[in-house]
UniProtKB/TrEMBL annotation:
This is Uncharacterized protein. The lineage of its organism: Bacteria, Bacillati, Actinomycetota, Actinomycetes, Streptosporangiales.
Length: 453
């Protein structure tokens, strides 16, 4: 049977956030996002920097192959077990008493909040990539047909899971050319989660439930099997389903034989596959003292958490004028705190994410330094913010505005950015002592009073 560590995608938002937070709680930073040993950072930087200079199609195939290598064979999806997944997740964390814990939606600002209070996070959703023969990225209905049996096998094997087959031919088109994104959500509290919380939560500790309310049109395939065409990012659900001149031009530019996406018609709405919270899980949390941290969409917490850190720094006598804007899975809680950086999390490299950050800077006290990293997904996708838009962010700094680990000439095919981000942030000076954990009650009260939440 395939081990859970080989079933779950290493390149996904939830697993990256899990790794960097777990390493932080273990007193460690996260070179290479914790995927590979730290000593490989320098050679990987050279290797991936060379990949940036490959011809476009060669680089794209290499990028897609890196994800395909992690994918599960379609005939093995029936081996997925929810308890085994949960055991693998909790194995990342040091076993000790924590003042709080988080369980629910993935969110970068929430990860910085959890780091500040010294608490672990248990994801509700993880990504299981599954190899697929047949189907085309721009033919979602065909891709569903090609992977339907694998999805049924997974759903039948995991009665505690809901399968959201997410198909995003805009931002994920390179990866989904040969695989299907099966995101599974725990609708019941798995035994390993319950045991971990009972053992590791301090008496009277609070279990915080990050509840992202984002929903998306879906097509029901089975009782616990949903298909989602498109995903949160640069364009909305309507454009994914209705198409138009912009979609047609995008597909023509990419050499696709299609001029619109052929998706099965939606018959309802569900929690968005990657970010949305399935409230069915709440029914199993009754034995714990919980606090529901509700927010409408990814990045909605980012301004409030940034201001929380600024307030915390001022109370500690640390300057609060250095901003680090992280992006998607490119996060480093350890060096964010060691460099005295205020974290602002960008959900992705899109126009809406860029606008939200600029709006935050418009309303915030000026920053002397702004550092910014960008996730490269290998595609010039619709709704993607170009480098000049990101330079507008850096121009808001009073003394230093700089990219962190980003090759602006290669973006969005800058495959070395996830290596260089850690190196560049760690080089910032001066450094500050690692603080004692923030009081959770203070943090939650601050967020409740913040105008953005």
């Amino acid at each position: 049977m395939t081990s859970p560590g080989r079933q779950v995608a290493g390149f996904d938002s939830a697993t990256a956030m899990l790794r960097v937070l777990a390493r932080f709680l273990d007193g460690r930073d996260a070179p290479l996002l914790g995927i590979l040993p730290g000593p490989l950072e320098a050679p990987m930087s050279v290797l991936l920097g060379a990949a940036n200079r490959l011809p476009r199609r060669v680089a794209e195939r290499a990028f897609a192959a890196s994800g395909w290598a992690e994918a599960v064979a379609p005939g093995r999806t029936g081996e997925v077990r929810s308890d085994a997944l949960a055991e693998w997740i909790v194995s990342h964390y040091p076993r000790r008493r924590y003042p709080a814990a988080f369980i629910g939606s993935a969110d970068g600002a929430m990860i910085h909040l959890a780091a500040a209070v010294g608490a672990p996070w248990l994801p509700q959703t993880v990504l299981i990539p599954v190899r697929r023969r047949g189907g085309h990225p721009d033919d979602p209905a065909g891709s569903l047909r090609a992977s339907r049996r694998a999805g049924q096998d997974l759903a039948d094997a995991g009665p505690d899971l809901v399968l959201h087959h997410m198909h995003d031919p805009n931002q994920d088109r390179l990866m989904i050319a040969g695989m299907s994104y099966f995101r599974v959500k725990f609708r019941r509290l798995p035994a390993a989660y319950r045991e971990f919380l009972r053992e590791c939560l301090a008496p009277d500790a609070t279990l915080v439930v990050p509840d992202c309310g984002l929903r998306w049109p879906t097509t029901r395939v089975g009782e616990r099997h949903l298909f989602q065409h498109g995903a949160f990012g640069g364009i909305g659900a309507a454009e994914f389903h209705e198409g138009g001149d912009r979609v047609a031009a995008f597909l023509a530019r990419d050499g696709s034989p299609f001029r619109a996406w052929r998706a099965p018609p939606p018959d309802g709405e569900s929690p968005e596959a990657e970010w949305g919270f399935d409230p069915a899980l709440l029914d199993d949390l009754g034995e714990f003292r919980t606090h529901r941290l509700a927010f409408p969409e990814p990045q909605a917490l980012s301004a409030a958490v940034a201001d929380l850190y600024r307030d915390w720094y001022r109370r500690r006598g640390v300057p609060d004028a250095r901003l680090f804007a992280s992006c998607f899975l490119l996060m480093e809680p350890w060096w964010t705190l060691r460099t005295g950086s205020v974290p602002y999390w960008l959900a992705f490299n899109t126009d809406p994410a860029n606008r939200r950050l600029l709006e935050y800077l418009d309303g915030a006290a000026p920053y002397d330094e702004i550092r910014l990293t960008l996730f490269s997904n290998g595609v010039r996708a619709l709704g993607q913010a170009p480098i000049p838009a990101w330079r507008d962010v850096l121009a808001r700094a009073r003394t230093l505005g700089s990219f962190t680990g980003v090759d602006a000439r290669a973006y969005p095919r800058d495959f070395a950015s996830f290596v260089r981000m850690h190196r560049d942030l760690a080089a910032a000076r001066p450094l500050y002592p690692m603080p004692d954990p923030m009081d959770l009650g203070f943090a939650l009260d601050f967020l409740a009073r913040h105008p953005s939440t």
